[in-house]
Amino acid sequence: MESSSNEKQELIALFKQQYKNNPIELKLLKNLKMAIHQIDQYGENNKCSSFIHVYQAQLMSKEEIEILKNSIGNFVSMNSFLSTSLNQ
């Protein structure tokens, strides 16, 4: 999901307004912004030049699978890490 630079700036402005009287939160916001920028740069510098197939195995209940099916196109939050492999 791509976001425009304008949307990012609007969100940053909203946070700055929200926390304008809280220097600790403003400092955390600045640190978070720097961390996100570094992660973005790392991704840009280390992206694959071609598509690769990766495989993932995860034991899930039928209820969890239904929840995922019903969440297509939406954000999904998980309390675990997903692991991938080049081997099937």
From TrEMBL:
UniProt superkingdom: Eukaryota
Name recorded for this polypeptide: Uncharacterized protein
Organism encoding this protein: Rotaria sordida
